Amino acid sequence: METTSTFFSAWDQYMYVGAAACVVLGVLILLYHEFKVLKLKDYKEKYDYVNLYEIKYFWYAIIAFIGAAAFYANSLATNKILMEGIRWFYVRIFITASFAVIAYNAFYSLVRIYYPRQLEKRLMKLRNAPRVSPEGNVMRKLTESEEEHHLEDVMKREGNVHSIDYDIWLDEKTGFKKIEKYPAYQHVEECSECGFFTMKIKEEEIEEAPTLDEQGLLLKHYECSYCGHREQREIVVAKLSANVA
User: Fold this and answer.
1) Alpha-carbon distance 66 to 133, whole Å?
2) So where are the chain's domains?
3) Global pTM exceeds 0.85
């Protein structure tokens, strides 16, 4: 009995250490991600980094916290095990492992379905944060109507008609201009069927190519990764610019 008590005492201590280590690991993962974001000075670089890595690091932190809960749960009811037999030790391991698997799948769904809404809010905040020119002046983001003649040149030069959004920032004191490119297919939108931010562009096709005289027409095919809803949207493409080689 004394040997068994010593084993479970040591077991509980290991479980406490494991739980604490997992909590620390989860916090460090989140802090590391935020530190990487803070290190980037350019808002477009921040945007790209957050867009690529935030959900991944957030998910890693959640896995660490699930591990912490599983370790801690394996230290509970030790007195019951000592009183009623070793079989409850294996029952406890089985139950905590089962709940860990359930938690893993539940949180995976929550992260996939609900977190993209919060991520998009953060991305839009970064995208609209005022830019500063090399001269130190606060730049102004041009409206869509103001962007039009600039974008025709950019799209012509890149040969790009597909889902790309452009933001143009202008230093009105010096005339310095910064054009930022945002691939639309990387982002999720709210699904009109289920209401979750799980709708993404799956395919695009040009129905009518733009010319010097006529606008073009781009057909975007969307699909929801949650409910499977599909829809198509037609996007008008600006005429080609004649003064660009």
Assistant:
1) 45
2) 2-125, 130-237
3) no
